[in-house]
Predict the 3D structure of the following.
Amino acid sequence: MSRITTHVLDIALGRPAAGVAVVLERQDEDGAWRALGSATTDSDGRIPHLLPDDAPFAAGAYKLVFDTGSYFRSAKAEAFYPRVTVEFTVEDATQHFHVPLLLSRFGYSTYRGS
């Protein structure tokens, strides 16, 4: 399992959000963001491998960018947030970071999962 994983739930429909594209980025020392990996949520709304196995994982600033606009367009639904960006800090790179997204057309929330 990757050190960084995610899970997207469509709380308006009460089910996993399949087909959400997600990009994982890390902030370089110069402040620029660099993509480390990307994937699309599976039928259970999960992405178990965002960070490639051979990619270094270190303390620093990371972000997940969820393409929620495409997800809602594919369902022929209006969405207020076309993209959800979740920035977080990794202090201890030996730990696992699970960052779920609870999503609806007009709102979202997130937390550090296990």
Summary: The helical segments are 68-74.
